[in-house]
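Internal QA ticket QA-208
Title: Verify multi-chain structure generation after dependency bump
Assignee: T.L.

Test input:
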Amino acid sequence: METVLISVLNGLVYGMLLFMLASGLTLIFSMMGVLNFAHASIYMVGAYLAFTISQVLGFFPALIIAPVLCGLIGAGIEIWGLRRVHHNGHIAELLFTFGLVFIIQRLVQMTWGMLPMAYRVPPLLDFPLFHLYGVNFPAYRGFMLLVSGAMLLSTWVLLKKTRVGLIIQAALTHPQMVSSLGHNVPQVFTTVFAGGCLLAGLAGVIGGNYQTTEPGMADSMGPIVFVVVVFGGLGSLAGCFVASIVMGMIQTFAVVVDYSVADLLRPLGLAISGDTLLTEVLTVPVARIGALLPFVMMVTILFFRPRGLMGTRDA
Amino acid sequence: MARFEAFGGNMRSLFRRACFAFVALLMGAAIRPALAQDTIKVAYVDPFSGPFASGGDEFLKVFAYILQKVNADGGALGKKFELVPFDDKLQPSEALIALKSVTDQNIPFVMQCTGSNVGSALLDGVSKYNARNPDNRILYLNCGALATELTNELCDFWQFRFTGNVEMRAAARVKALPKDVTKVYLLNQDYLFGQSIQHDTKKWLAKLRPDIQIVGDELMPFGKVQDFSPYIQKIKASGAQSVITGNYNRDLNLLIKAAVDDGLNVRFDTFLAHLIGGPTAIGSAGEGRLFSVTEFDPNVPAELNKPEAEAFSNGWRATHDTDFSEIPFLTMFQMLARAIDKAGSTDALKVALALEGMKGTDLVGAPVEMRKEDHQLLMPYYAVSFTKNVKYDAEKTGLGWKTDFIATTEELTLPTVCKMKRPAS
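Actual output:
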C-alpha cells in the first residue's frame, strides 16, 4: 500500500513535468502543423539559463527570467526561421526544427561545456516536506507540483476564458476565417510558438535541478514528449494532460512490478522453461523494460485509434 | 531562391569571397604536415561528438598533457609522439571507417579508450587487417574497452590492454567492502558493460564474501530512466546496506540524487562515480555514502608520499577544472616508448614482442606488468570514498576521493583463459 501511494505521488510529479513540455508542443503542433523537434532543446536551454541566472540573482528570479528568455528565443525562431520556410511546406519546417536540435545542442556545449552543471535545488526548498511510511517526500517535488498546477490553471484560463484564447482557438481550426475578420494570424502563430517555448523553458528551470543539467538532457526527454503528444491526441490539451499523467504513472509503476509475461501464464498451467526463441521475451520482468512501455503504448494507440486518446484529427 | 536573388550582387560576391577564404584555409591545412617535423603518429579513436563526447573531449586534453611529459622525457627513437584523433561517435561502424583512414595514412598504432562494443570491433578489424597485410601491420592499444572477454575468450596478439578489465575492478570492489556489510543490492545498466559488472561482481562475492546476501539483483534500461524514486523504494524495501552499481554519468547521478531526496541511507559502492563530471553532478549528496574504485586520484600521491607524482597531478590541476586520474594512459605511453626504443623501429610485430612481458612501475611507483599470455596490464586499484577530509578536492566541489583500501597488482593478477594465436615469424 505504501509503495502505491508514494509511486502515485512520484508519478504525478514526473507526469506534470512531462505535461509542461508536451502542452507547448501540442499547442504548436495543432496550430501550425509543425512537429517542433527542437522543443526538448528549448527545455535544455531553459535549464542552462536558469543555472546561470540563479548563480547571479538566485533561483526565484531565474524562475521568471529564464522562461521569458526562452519565449523570446522561440519568437525569434518563429519570425526569422519557421515563417521563412513555411511556404515550402511542412516537410521543410520539420527538417528546419530537426536541424535546430543539433545547432542548439552544439551551441549549448560550446557555451557551457560538455560536463553536467552543478545546478541544485535552492536551500529554501531543500528539506523533506513530509514522511510517508519512512520515505521522505522532498519539498522541491511539492513545489514542482505547485508550479505545474499553476501553469495548468493559467493556460486553461487563458485559452478558455479570455478573448486572446478565443482567437487562438479559432486560428487553430479556421485560420483563413480569423484572418478575414481582421486578426493578424502570423502574429498569433508567433505568440503561440513563443508561449510553447516559454512553457518548455519553465519546465527546464524546475526540471534541470530535479534531474541533471547536461548536454544529453534534451535527447533523453525528447522522445518521451513526442509519445505523450501522439498518445494524448494531436491538438488536444486535455488529452495531453491525461497522457502525461498516464506516462508518468506507467514509468513509475513499471519499475515496481517484478512480474513477467511468464508469471501471468503460470496460473493457467503454462510453464515456460528451457531456451526457446521466446523464453527471453516472456521471462523478462516488466521492471527491466519499463522505459519501453510508453513506446509500446504509442504504437498500440496508433494502431487502434490513430487520432490518439482525445485527438480531433489523425496523426 | 527568390529571396537570395533579392540581395543581388552584393550577397553573391560576399559568398564568392567566403568560398575563396575557405579554399585558402584548406590549402594552408594541406601544407602544414609537410612543414611538421618527423613524429611517431598514434591514431586516437573515441567519441568526440554525440552524447558521449564529454569523455573523448576530456581524454584528448589528458593525452595532450601526458604527451608533454613523455615528449619532454625524450619520446621514442629521438622522435616525439603525435596524436591523430578520429571521431567514432561510439559506433563500431564509425570506428572501422576510422581504422581504414588510419591504415591509409600508415599510422602504426591505433588507440581507443571508450566502449567495449567499439573495442571488440577494432580488435577484430585490426586482427584481420594484419592477417591480410603482413608488411604493414598495426597495433591496437586498448585504454578503456573494459569487457573481460577482450583479454580472455576474444584475446588477440595485436591488442594490448592498458587498463584493468571488469573482473579486476569487480575483485577490487568486493575486496574493499567493509566486514559489516552483509546485504547488497546489485543495480546495473542493461547492456554489455552493466551485465558483465553484474556477472563478475556475483562471481567475486561468492568467492570472497559468502557471508554477503544479495537481496536485489536488477538490470535497468541504459540511459532511459528519468525518475529513480521507484528504484529507491525497492532498495529500501529490500533492507540492503549497500548498492553495488556499475552505473555512470546520468544513470548514477540521478540514482544518488533520488536516494538523498527520499532519505535512503545506504552505501553506494560504484565502479565509475569518479568519472569526469560525476563529482560535480552529485556534489555534497555523495558525502560519506559514495564509494568508487579508481586507477588513480589526486590524493593518492599525497597519501603514499610521492612528491613527483603529486607535482604531475598538480600541474594538471593548475590549468584544468577537472582531476587527473588517468594514470594508465601515462603508463601506456611510457611503456610504448620503451618498447619502440627496444625494437628500434615502429614495426608492429617488433614493438609487440618488446611490449610482451614488459615490467615497470607507474607514476606512484606501483609495479605494473604487460602479461604475455593475454596482453592485459596488471596494475593496482584504489578503493576510495567521497569525503571532505582530503587534501585535494574533486572538480572544485569541496569534496574529494580518499583511499580506503589498495588492491595491489599482485592481488589483481587474476587467471586468464586466453589462448592466443601468435604470428608465425
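Spot checks passed. Chain B has two domains: 39-164+326-378, 167-294+381-407.
Status: verified.
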